[in-house]
Amino acid sequence: MSPPLTSTSNRKQKSVLFLGDCNTLGTPDIEGKAYPEQFANELRALAINCGHTMTTVREGSEYLASRFTKNTDAVCLQYGLVDSWKTFKFSPYILYYPDSRRRKFARKLVKKFKKWCKSLGLNALIGEDNVVPVSEYRNRILSFIEHCAPKPLVLIETVPNKDISRNAEIRRYNAALKELAAQHEHVWLLPIYDDFCETMSEHYSDPTHLSETGHAHVAKKLSNLFNETIFTDQKQL
Hints:
Blueprint: E1 15-20, H1 22-25, H2 35-43, E2 46-51, H3 57-67, E3 74-78, E4 86-88, H4 101-119, H5 122-126, E5 128-130, H6 134-148, E6 153-156, H7 167-182, E7 187-190, H8 193-197, H9 200-203, H10 212-230
Parallel strand pairs: 1-2, 1-3, 3-6, 6-7
Antiparallel strand pairs: 4-5
Helix pairs in contact: 2-10, 3-6, 6-7
């Protein structure tokens, strides 16, 4: 049984790939000090933070294809905040990664289109849908699981939003993560939703984004998972 990274100075530094949205990247004031970097400092590992504002599992698929290599020792994934968001059901979706001038221009048009639809009452009349339907979300997470095998993959729950109207959908997407984690031996769930329900005032910088202390909580819980479970499991890094 191999010891934890924190006690093995002669082992190769482990590389952990982080995929996620703004709460993986961190807000501009704490970029470089978000939970991936705090986790890496704690475990003396290399964090490759591919967090990207406004992204979903669709961008995550692109990141995984381009950044996951034979040298990747583990992957941590946190998508669901944008995926679960409800908007006009016929709104087109333009990827944020890989990006281009055309895509930036197209997103501006889509944003205007959404505002126009909402102002006309089309959201209420025709209906809304999640940015990424939960069935697609589940299928893409499954493809991540298959792509990463047998390397450890940690699925990190999306934290609750202070706009409580969004939380029923967030819980539904978190339930999909829990279900998938239970079905695969090399996959772990990091349950943090309930933690943040009790600490919003302390760990949020605004209704959606984690503060530095919020990131510290995630990093600590993630470090504990690796040291107490993943490193001690027969499927360890």
